[in-house]
Amino acid sequence: MKDAHKDLRLAMLNSICAGWITEHAFCPWRKWRADFAHEEHGIIVETNGNAYQTKSGGRHGKPPDLQKINAAQALGWRVLQYGTSKNETARMVAEVRAVVSGTGIEQAFKVGMAK
């Protein structure tokens, strides 16, 4: 993950509520790490896209990454996934704010959807 983009998203998440951490080891039996996690709210935010791929070509959306997301959900985490564009960052802020507050969820998740 590019540091500047990661720092920007972390600042945006912390503007919603303090306590977000990066590279959180959420799974006790694997070395998986969440891009961003908030333990109190039980939320993991994953960013998928070319900016976050490994040197060998990345794995987002491939079976090992899907297994990671499934494990997080099985462990009780609410996992939200986003791309790397500015629109995705704005959508991330709106959706995370709605999930954290428990209000406006329907409206937040309708933004950007086809009619």
Please tag this protein with its features.
4 helices, Endonuclease, Chain A, globular, 115 residues, 4-stranded mixed sheet, alpha+beta
What does this structure look like?
- This protein has 115 residues and is of the alpha+beta class.
- It has a single domain, classed as VSR Endonuclease (Endonuclease, Chain A), CATH 3.40.960.10.
- It has helices spanning 3-16, 63-74, 86-101, 105-110, and strands spanning 21-24, 34-38, 43-47, 78-82.
- A four-stranded mixed sheet has the order 1-2-3-4, with helices on both faces.
- A hairpin with a 4-residue loop joins β2 (34-38) and β3 (43-47).
- α1 (3-16) runs parallel beside α3 (86-101).
Short description:
With 115 residues, the protein is of the alpha+beta class. It contains four helices and four strands; from the N terminus they run αβββαβαα.
CATH superfamily: VSR Endonuclease
Report the oligomer: single chain
Could you say which structural class the secondary elements and strand pairing correspond to? alpha+beta
**Count of all domains:** 1
Instruction: Name the average pLDDT.
Output: 85
How many strands in all?
A: 4
CATH fold-level label? Endonuclease, Chain A
